[in-house]
Amino acid sequence: MSPSTPLLPDPSAPCPCGSGDAVGACCGPVLADARPAPAALQLMRSRYVAFAVRDAAHLLRSWHPTTRPGAEELEASLAEGLAWRRLVVHRTERGGPFDDDGIVEFTALARATDGSAVRLHETSRFVREHGRWLYVDGDVAD
């Protein structure tokens, strides 16, 4: 299966991560791999946008190699058609420019193709290796 083409928003549009900034000043450069995320929170926000626009390349690139799924598995997950609507960040621990690890707890809200609401509450773990933040894994809460 070949990677899908992401549906990237216009750089002047509000960023889907909910930061209040335009895509071009927020997650856009991280998604385009023009600059690394400066902190775990920014990587998590860019990954949320990547799920929203089905950017498998960014998701794979930002996933730690020890826990990264295969491209076909990720593409199948993205093909489920969830329409991600809102991101709420609850807390962060570490994850700054001088840290080697960090935690971000968030809730992401989506709409399934059948119209039902989907809620993902996760506490995600990140590490910084060679100056780049990577998503390791997360604990999903009920």
TrEMBL record:
YchJ-like middle NTF2-like domain location is 40-138
Q: A Pfam family name for this chain? A: YchJ_M-like
Q: Which InterPro entries match?
A: NTF2-like_dom_sf, YchJ-like_M
Range of residues in the leader sequence: none
* Top-level division of the source organism's lineage: Bacteria
Q: What's the name of the protein?
A: YchJ family metal-binding protein
What is the species of this protein?
A: Brachybacterium huguangmaarense
